[in-house]
Every structure is written in structure tokens, then in C-alpha cells.
Amino acid sequence: MANAYTTRKLSARYPTDLPAWKKLADHHKSDMRDSNLNDLFSRDKKRVDKFKLVAGDLNLDYSKIHLKNATLKLLSQLAKQADVPAAIEAMFAGQKINQTEERAVLHVALRAKIADGVAHDTLGITEVWEVLTKIESFVDDVQSGTIKGSTGKRLTDIVNIGIGGSDLGPVMASRALRPYWKEGMRFHAVSNVDGTQLDDLTAELDPETTLFVICSKTFTTQETMTNANAARAWVIERLDELAVQYHFVAASTNHEAMDAFGIRSDFRFGFWDWVGGRYSLWSAVGLSLALVVGMDVFRAVLAGGRRMDQHFHRAPLDENMPVLLAIIGIWYNNFFGAQSQAILPYTHRLDRFPAYLQQLQMESSGKSVRMDGKPVRCDTGMIIWGEAGNNAQHSFMQLMHQGTRFVPVDFILSSASDLATANCRAQAQALMEGTSEKALESYRVHAGNRPSNTIQFETLTPEVLGQLIALYEHKVFVEGVIWGINSFDQWGVELGKKLANA
Length: 502
Ligand code: F6P
Fold this sequence. Notes:
Blueprint lengths: L3 H4 L11 H14 L4 H7 L3 H4 L1 E4 L2 E4 L7 H13 L2 H9 L33 H19 L12 E5 L6 H9 L9 E5 L5 H7 L7 E6 L6 H17 L5 H4 E4 L3 H7 L6 E2 L17 H7 L1 H20 L6 H15 L4 E7 L6 H13 L17 E4 L10 H6 L6 E6 L3 H16 L18 E6 L4 H22 L10 H8 L1
Parallel strand pairs: 3-4, 3-5, 5-6, 6-7, 8-9, 8-10, 10-11
Antiparallel strand pairs: 1-2, 2-11
Helix pairs in contact: 2-5, 5-15, 7-13, 8-13, 8-16, 13-14, 14-19, 15-19, 16-19
The structure holds 6-O-phosphono-beta-D-fructofuranose.
């Protein structure tokens, strides 16, 4: 069923034409451009209690953002006038909102329950649970030793061969969930094309206990197939041709290519064209992760994603965490002119989360043409970068405190460590407050007034990880709806691939 979002001819609705956008521009010019966070705090003692939100296990503190109630009201109006609610409905209903590829966008279906009615009128998503059940029995068989290597040994070293969304998700999540690895299981990943990663890895692996997971939606990506063929040659050389059937499984949609490679039909785990690469960890792309942490933990990640989906689908715009992150991002991007945003996780196990978010946000929002084919009239995706906290403090925080750049920060904090908590809070406070002593030499002055969000949770459990990933997936979606771009295609990566292949 079409709705205001899917039927809307986007050309009529440049965001800059929306009444709320014009009011925000005035509000910024007259009231907020020169505002100081410290003044906002001193004028309103309850500020820290006003500008916070809980969703699931996540606590968002957005009090160190240049906004007042009036700002929040206008930003929420902007989301409404840009048909964000209708867009959310369209996505959950399985409408083809990825218009240039004529596809639905249904990563939410990968973690939904039947009762949720996701995509109820477009596709039989029962096949999602069929694949999950198939993954579950495969994972259980590998971990129990029912499925063994070609020489009868237990498969303990799982090697994910993939790149982009077929690498970053499994790598990030396996590191985030290191305490959950099952006894004796080890996760490895190979992604780059120059062969050194695979060489370095096979030097320390025993082919008899190694299982390669070829992770590739298309099964044609040059880097992935180069590594997969090199790994195949290594297994043949060290074992024999027959061993290929025991030591390779695939997560892909391309059966023809899997036939050619020699993947056993029961060692193939499919997914669908309505799963975008950078939104695919929840699908068979998560197979390598599930093989290491076990299906119970993998299902807990899915449950976390579903919990954030339900919040995103139901919460009013100004109490909706993904919407808040999106409109705060637009506020700094399109009104304060921020060119980049830093992601600083203060738990080392999320050290690959900034890299994961780089693809999620920049491959989704790095667009300059709208869904109706016309050029955008405002900036779109920011540059996303970052590093695990404390390491960041001994690397680039000098620029953040005393440089000339304006870079909003998302701190992501697990309060499991007092030291990490103390350092994270200190950094957010120092960015905002700067130095107050009057007689300081100029080179010691910290200007302050530098904004940050803090997303805090108790400990990094599989459920929390699922919530965190889904939070940013939906933030990206909302930003794209407001800008009028398609966040789910990636034509900008085709040219490079074509030239490289030529
Ligand atoms: O970066 C381009 C891209 O298509 C990503 O969107 C995708 O995650 C990656 O390449 C890998 O693609 P595949 O899973 O088809 O190998």
C-alpha cells in the first residue's frame, strides 16, 4: 500500500523549502549560532534532565548539544514535514523505498517476529526464519563436532572472507562480543585484495580445523573472490580437492557462482535483495559470527535490533532516539556547517565500531542526487571517523580541544569501567566547558563550547550491541528521508569496480 512517502514526488519537497527549515535557519541565525553551551546550562539547572532519553538499554544524553526546547520543536517539525513518519511506515511495510534498485529495504524483517507483521503485505518473510533455522542447525553441528573437517577434526578457526558490509559487520561484532566466543572457537577475517592478510593468517592456521565462510551477496566482488580462490588453492595444496567441500561455506544470493566454486548445496546460506550490504549483519552475513559466539548469542543480537525497531516504529518523533540523532546531525551539518562527526566508543571492544559506521553512514548518505533524480540543494552525509576512547585522547583530541575545526562527537560509553567512564565524561566536559581561568597564556586556553552526545549503557551485551547498530541504521534512514536521497543504493562504488576489473 502506497502512502504519503512513496507516492510523494520528492521534487516538490526540497527540505530547504519546508517551513520548518526556514524557521530553523532564522532560529540558528538569531538565536543559536552564537549560543554557548555553558550559558545554556547556567540558565537552566534542569538541562541535563531535560535533554536525555532512554530507549531499551541505551541512555542518550544530548544536553551538550546547541539546542533549546524551541530548537527541538522545529527539528521535530522538520522531520514531520519531510514525511519521516510515512517513510518509517513505508519501510516496515516493505515498500520499494530503494527506488533506483527497485527494492524494498527490510533489514528490520531479519530480526522481526511473525507477530510484528513486518512487510505483511509484500513478501512472505517466513523464509527469514527458514534461513535462521538452517543457520542454527549448521552452527550447532559445527560447534558440537557433528560437522567436521575433511580429516575428521573439529572446525575451530572460522575465517570470514568478505569486504565492506560482508566484512565490517562480522569483524566489529566478533570483537564487540569477544567474551561470548564459545570454548575453542576463534574468529578471523580476510578482506583486502593484496593477499597479505590471507598469507599472514594461513601461516598460523591448520587447514584441518579451518572453515572459510565466503561472505558475498553478489559472489563476484573482486577482493572476495581473489581471497576465496587463494584460500581454496591453500586447502587443495595442504589437503586435497575433496577437502574444499568440507572447508568452505557461503553466505550469498548467487547460486550459479557458488556452483562454480564448488560449495555444497547444504553449505549455502542465502539472503535477499532487500538486504543491503551495509545492513546485512543480521542475515546469513552474520554466519561467521554465529559460528564463533553460538546461535543463542546471535539471536540475542537480533532481539536487540528488534527492540530498537519497536522503539523507532512506535515512539513519537521528539522521543525517538534514531530521529533525535538524525535531526541533531542535520542541525550541525546543515545549519552549523559541520563537515565531519567523530564516533568515540569508550569501550575497547567497540574499536571497530567507527569503521563499521563509516560504511553504514557514508555509503548511505554520500549522495548528491535526490530520489527524483534532481541535484540536492543542501549538504548531505558528513564524514564519519573515530577511534576507541583513551586511544583517541593520545591521538587527535588535541585538535578537538584547541583546533579550529567544529566536530560534533558521539561518545559511546559502557559504564562497566570506572576509568573509561571518568575519561569519557572528562572529555565531554572539557570539550564543552573549556578552560575558565582568566590569566592563562593563550596557548593553554581551551575555547570550549564544543558539542557532544553521550550514548551510555551498563555493559556491552549482545542485546545492547543489536540496539546500538539498529539505532544508527535508523538514524541514517531518517537523515536520508529529510534530505530526499536514497540511502540504500551505492552507485558511487560501481565505477571503481569497473575500472579495477578493466
Ligand atoms: O562497497 C560496495 C559494496 O557493494 C558494499 O555495499 C558491499 O557491502 C560490498 O561492496 C561487498 O559486496 P558483496 O557482499 O556483494 O561482496
